[in-house]
Amino acid sequence: MAAAPSRCLLVTGPPGVGKTTLVMRVLETLRSSHPHLAVRGFYTREVRENGERVGFEVVTLDGRSGPLASSRISRFPESVRWPTVGKYKVDVASLESLALPELQVKEDTDLFIIDEVGKMELFSSAFFPAVMRVMESNIPVLATIPLPRYGRDIPGVARLRNHPGADVFTLNTGNRDTMRESIYNQLSRLMQKR
Ligand SMILES: Nc1ncnc2c1ncn2[C@@H]1O[C@H](COP(=O)(O)OP(=O)(O)OP(=O)(O)O)[C@@H](O)[C@H]1O
C-alpha cells in the first residue's frame, strides 16, 4: 500500500520566487476540481503606491483585507513602539484580527492556507500557537515559510520545517511549475479522502 501523503505542505524559497503565486494557483485549480471545498486562511500581498512598495496587507480567503506592515509613518502614532522589519512597521493588531479567526481548527474545514509564517507574522505571540494547532490537527494545510538566512531559521519557522508531519518544497525559478503540480496532486489526494 502507498504511504499516506503528508498533510502539512510547506513551500519555501527565496524572496520573490513565486511562493504566493504557487499557493494561489494551486488553490484555484483545487477549487475548480473540488468545487465544494471549505478552505480557510489568508495570504499576504504587497501594497504599492506610484510603483513603490510601501507595505504589505493580509487578505483572508473570503476576501477581507487589512494592513500587515507599512513604511508610511503617518499610519503609526509616534507614541507607540512598533515592531519593525526593515523600513516597515508591523501592525500586529490588524494581523491578529484578520488571521487568527481564520486559523481556528474547525472540523468543517477541508484545507488551511497560511501565507506566510514569517518574521512579521511572528511578532504576534498568538500567531505561532495558532499555526501549531493547525499543524497538529487532522486537517490538511498549505503554508509558506521563508528560507533560512545566513544558514539560520527564524525560531518558530525551524519548528515547522522540522515538524514530523511536514513535507517541505523548496522553490526556484526552474522547478516552480513542477512543484506546483506535485503540490496540487498531493492535496488533491488528500481532498479525496475528506
Ligand atoms: N511560475 C511563475 N511564472 C512566472 N512568473 C511568476 C511565477 N511565479 C511567480 N511569478 C512572478 O514573480 C513575482 C513574485 O511572485 P510571488 O509574490 O508569488 O513571490 P513570493 O515568493 O511569494 O514573494 P515574497 O517572498 O515577497 O513573499 C510576481 O510578479 C509573480 O507574478
TrEMBL record:
Domain named Guanylate kinase-like: residues: 6-192
UniProt KW keywords: ATP-binding, Hydrolase, Nucleotide-binding
SUPFAM superfamilies, per the entry: P-loop containing nucleoside triphosphate hydrolases
Gene Ontology terms for molecular function: ATP binding; ribonucleoside triphosphate phosphatase activity
Membrane-traversing stretches: none
Signal peptide start-end: none
Gene3D superfamilies, per database record: P-loop containing nucleotide triphosphate hydrolases
PROSITE patterns: GUANYLATE_KINASE_2
Matches recorded under Pfam families: NTPase_1
Keyword check for DNA-binding: no
Coiled-coil blocks: none
Protein name from the UniProt record: Guanylate kinase-like domain-containing protein
Naturally occurring in which organism (per UniProt): Triticum turgidum subsp. durum (Durum wheat)
